[in-house]
């Protein structure tokens, strides 16, 4: 049973007809009091809750009702109903435990999609993951590893892939976010449809609308013909929005609108178009911190992260490094026509303790360089060691450059630059990573002329 809580009889009727037509059993309540009378008798599978009732329009009663519902029925998912101008209320509701929000007037297909997704996820019982079982159930053949942290990620994406839930993939650069996004698409009902990848970090704010929503001829000086945008290209399929944390504020507003309504207008056109697309986002930034600083919209954050998966870095799953190296070598045997290519036991053991701040992407580059420049089919420690950057010395002193190739001051300069880049110029974190005080780090930054922003 689904419970609709709304004082507007027209909304009750419209939603009831829609949901009953889809096979749901529906009950309605015109007030919070009526809703709690129903909840005292039975437990619904899901509730649709309006944020404003006739006695007040601030949304406070809706928030109080949501809080009371969460206390009484903490496991029942709630979808909020609000007006576009009251999205701030919906954000407060998401913080209070709601699963999703829709705005009036709603899109029927999007609402049904959200309800089915939430019900599917709430009904599935996760099992203890094993690589063999996961490979039997899903198509994860291009994802290498058996670390429990990685298996938990694969278990999650396997469960959510058949739904249309928006997924946010987080993790450091090079951890394989695009590969996970592709796996979600390939294990979904949309797998035969387009999978469109967009690197938002590489699109300027002036080109954002044209790239994502398209344009019509004459929309701007160089628009000599109509152009289809990425969202329209992804229709019926999935769109992967990488580096979403790099979006500027004005582009965030435009993206929120299409994610909310599934409608957009090509640049230069006044005619709206509807799109049916599954949205998968990724970032190596900390969006929660950006929300707190006001550089990323809170309502957009809640729209894209119904499901969030965090990919572990290689230093969190060192046991997978030999498997990844073997996987890369197997591929390179074919690419470079070297069927006897292999990694020695000593090299495999040494690689397991390798520090790779660039994660899988960096490890792949190291392996490929070693293969290209080695005259032997058996790769030894020395074949890899010569391609290890300075930062890898953090875990193994043998990774340090040869004596005489760099001065101590040059090593210090390089390490500070790498640490600043790795920690996104957060001075306090860089100082802790280097084992010095902030003030000692400030002196070195000034000494080497490395730009920074002082922290309080």
CATH class of the largest domain: Alpha Beta
CATH topology of the largest domain: Rossmann fold
Strand content: 5-15%
Could you give a short account of the major beta sheet? 5 strands, parallel
Organism: Nibrella viscosa
Domain Sigma-54 factor interaction: 143-372
Protein name: Sigma-54 dependent transcriptional regulator
Modified residues (4-aspartylphosphate): 50
List keywords for this structure.
about 450 residues; alpha/beta; Rossmann fold; Helicase, Ruva Protein, domain 3; 4 domains; five-stranded parallel sheet; about 45% helix; globular
Topology:
Elements lengths: L1 E4 L3 H13 L4 E4 L2 H10 L4 E5 L9 H13 L5 E6 L3 H9 L4 E5 L3 H16 L7 H7 L10 H13 L6 E4 L6 H10 L8 E5 L8 H6 E2 L11 E2 L1 H4 L4 E5 L6 H13 L1 E2 L8 E2 L3 E6 L3 H7 L4 H7 L2 E4 L10 H15 L6 E2 L1 H8 L6 H15 L4 E2 L1 H5 L22 H15 L4 H8 L3 H11 L8
Parallel strand pairs: 1-2, 1-3, 3-4, 4-5, 6-13, 6-14, 7-10, 10-13, 15-16
Antiparallel strand pairs: 8-9, 11-12
Helix pairs in contact: 11-13, 14-16, 18-19, 19-20
Could you characterize the architecture of this molecule?
By secondary structure, the chain is an alpha/beta fold. The protein has 4 domains: 2-123, Rossmann fold; 140-312, P-loop containing nucleotide triphosphate hydrolases (Rossmann fold, 3-Layer(aba) Sandwich); 315-399, Helicase, Ruva Protein, domain 3; 408-448. It has 20 helices and 16 strands. The chain has helices at residues 9-21, 32-41, 60-72, 87-95, 108-123, 131-137, 148-160, 177-186, 208-213, 230-233, 249-261, 287-293, 298-304, 321-335, 345-352, 359-373, 381-385, 408-422, 427-434, 438-448; strands at 2-5, 26-29, 46-50, 78-83, 100-104, 167-170, 195-199, 214-215, 227-228, 238-242, 263-264, 273-274, 278-283, 307-310, 342-343, 378-379. A 5-stranded parallel sheet has the order 2-1-3-4-5, sandwiched between helices. A 5-stranded parallel sheet has the order 7-10-13-6-14. A two-stranded antiparallel sheet has the order 8-9. α14 (321-335) packs across α16. Residues 390-398 have low confidence and may be disordered. The modification 4-aspartylphosphate is found at residue 50. Residues 1-119 form the Response regulatory domain. InterPro entries: AAA+_ATPase, AAA_lid_NorR, CheY-like_superfamily, Homeodomain-like_sf, HTH_Fis, P-loop_NTPase, Sig_transdc_resp-reg_receiver, Sigma_54_int.
């Amino acid at each position: 049973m689904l419970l609709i809580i709304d004082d507007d009889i027209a909304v009750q009727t419209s939603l009831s007809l829609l949901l009953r037509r889809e096979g749901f059993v529906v009950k309605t309540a015109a007030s919070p009091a009526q809703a709690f009378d129903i909840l005292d008798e039975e437990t619904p599978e899901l509730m649709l809750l309006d944020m404003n009732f006739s006695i007040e329009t601030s949304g406070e009663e809706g928030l109080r009702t949501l809080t009371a519902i969460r206390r009484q029925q903490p496991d029942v998912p709630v979808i909020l109903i609000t007006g576009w101008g009251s999205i701030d209320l919906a954000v407060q509701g998401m913080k209070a435990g709601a699963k999703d929000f829709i705005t009036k007037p709603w899109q029927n297909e999007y609402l049904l999609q959200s309800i089915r997704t939430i019900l599917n996820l709430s009904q599935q019982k996760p099992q203890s993951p094993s690589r063999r079982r996961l490979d039997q159930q899903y198509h994860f053949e291009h994802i290498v590893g058996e670390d429990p942290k990685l298996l938990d990620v694969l278990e999650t994406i396997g469960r959510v892939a058949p739904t249309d839930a928006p997924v946010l993939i987080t993790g450091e650069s090079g951890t394989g976010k695009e590969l996970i996004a592709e796996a979600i698409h390939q294990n979904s009902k949309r797998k035969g449809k387009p999978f469109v990848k967009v690197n938002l970090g590489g699109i300027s704010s002036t080109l954002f609308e044209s790239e994502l929503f398209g344009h019509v001829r004459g929309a701007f000086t160089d628009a000599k013909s109509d152009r289809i945008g990425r969202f329209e290209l992804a229709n019926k399929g999935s769109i992967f929005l990488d580096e979403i944390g790099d979006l500027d504020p004005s582009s965030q507003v435009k993206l929120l609108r299409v994610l909310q309504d599934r409608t957009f207008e090509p640049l230069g056109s006044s005619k709206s178009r509807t799109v049916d697309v599954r949205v998968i986002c990724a970032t190596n930034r900390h969006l929660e911190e950006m929300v707190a600083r006001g550089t990323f919209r809170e309502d957009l954050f809640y729209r894209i992260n119904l499901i969030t998966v965090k990919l572990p870095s290689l230093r969190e799953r060192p046991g997978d490094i030999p498997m990844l190296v073997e996987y890369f070598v197997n591929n390179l045997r074919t690419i470079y026509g070297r069927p006897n290519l292999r990694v020695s036991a000593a090299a495999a053991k040494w690689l397991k303790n390798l520090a790779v701040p660039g994660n899988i992407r960096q490890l792949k580059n190291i392996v490929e360089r070693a293969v290209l420049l080695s005259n032997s089919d058996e790769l030894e420690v020395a074949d890899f060691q010569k391609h290890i950057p300075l930062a890898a010395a953090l875990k193994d002193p043998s990774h340090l450059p040869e004596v005489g190739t760099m001065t101590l001051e040059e090593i210090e300069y390089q390490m500070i630059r790498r640490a600043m880049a790795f920690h996104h110029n957060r001075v306090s974190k860089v100082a802790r990573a280097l084992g010095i005080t902030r003030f000692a780090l400030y002196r070195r930054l000034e000494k080497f002329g490395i730009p920074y922003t002082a922290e309080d």
